[in-house]
Specification:
By secondary structure, this protein is mostly helical. It contains 10 helices and no strands. The two termini are 28 Å apart.
Length: 217
């Protein structure tokens, strides 16, 4: 416990910047989704750069957030691997746009589905941390997952880009809420965590008894 807290104290305090960057990136993802819903006939040349650059920026934000000094590693715990996956998807969209566009509904559907599943896991972990509103996180991630399945299989007879926009808007809103709640709660509990860390280093009488019994056995 001592080493962990020592490392946290000597690391740069980047959690605030990571939180802001993550919320801004999620908000932009949400706005892009709304634009695709309203204007589903955007030219391919513009879509290439919107998707490509946008996903690469989101990837950079995810990786930066993962390396921030978030003590609980709750909101950003899966973002290193998922950030790399997002960067690869963004680069593929810029390099081989025609191929990806022919499978855009499937590719973006899988991306958003994975994000929703990771957020479900975060909601379950939040419950273990004692966060009172973990069930809201779980419901919002379930909504994203359930509504993304028809997008992947093309079950709704709506314009493809409009469907992608709906899924993006839902995912962006869910990510913003998830980050604002989980990271904010961690910040409020930071001093308590340090206090509990100090208390954990004090051996209780029960621990002493258990150790003595173990030596006798």
């Amino acid at each position: 416990m001592k080493n962990v807290h020592g490392l946290e104290k000597h690391r740069p305090d980047t959690i605030r910047e990571a939180r802001v960057a993550y919320v801004v990136a999620s908000a932009l993802f949400f706005i892009a989704g709304i634009l695709f819903i309203i204007f589903p006939q955007i030219p391919d040349g513009i879509l290439r750069w919107i998707f490509g650059i946008g996903l690469c920026l989101i990837a950079a934000t995810r990786i930066f957030a993962y390396w921030s000094n978030d003590l609980y590693r709750l909101a950003f715990q899966y973002d290193f691997a998922f950030g790399i996956f997002t960067a690869v998807l963004g680069l593929l969209l810029m390099v081989n746009f025609e191929y990806i566009m022919s499978h855009l509904q499937l590719m973006m559907g899988m991306y958003i589905l994975l994000d929703g599943l990771f957020k479900m896991q975060i909601a379950i972990d939040a419950q273990r941390f004692g966060m009172s509103k973990w069930w809201i996180l779980l419901i919002s991630s379930l909504v994203v997952v359930v509504l993304t399945v028809p997008l992947i299989f093309g079950l709704i007879p709506v314009d493809e880009l409009r469907l992608v926009g709906i899924a993006m808007a839902l995912d962006g809103a869910e990510n913003s809420w998830n980050t604002m709640y989980t990271v904010r709660v961690r910040a409020k509990k930071e001093n308590k965590e340090e206090l509990y860390g100090e208390l954990d280093r004090i051996e209780s009488p029960l621990d002493t008894i258990r150790k003595r019994r173990g030596k006798k056995q």
